[in-house]
Design goal:
mainly alpha, 434 Repressor (Amino-terminal Domain), 5 helices, elongated
Length: 94
């Protein structure tokens, strides 16, 4: 019987996958912001057209956001969108 080895997470899945620390940090922040934006859109009950109007972007960009196409959004853009969506964005250093 083979015993599975369980390796504890570092708290950042991207670091666990082997990305360099600086890239893992940016990817993690982008993922968190995208999740927050998707939650906001869903909670508010906005259609993609309504979300696009509120966020000041095209509907196709909202579609990209909802389909988690993280490579299409810079960290700067996600901070801007989160702010436009009424979220307060803060950086917490650990």
């Amino acid at each position: 019987m083979t015993k599975e080895v369980i390796i504890p997470s570092s708290g950042n899945v991207f670091a666990d996958l082997g990305f360099p620390p600086e890239e893992a940090a940016v990817l993690s922040m982008r993922a968190q912001l995208m999740a927050t934006l998707r939650e906001r859109i869903t909670e508010a009950g906005w259609t993609q057209v309504q979300a696009a109007e509120r966020l000041g972007i095209g509907q196709s960009r909202v579609s990209d956001l909802m389909r988690n196409k993280y490579d299409k959004f810079s960290l700067d853009m996600l901070v801007t969108l989160a702010t436009r969506a009424g979220r307060r964005v803060e950086l917490a250093l650990a």
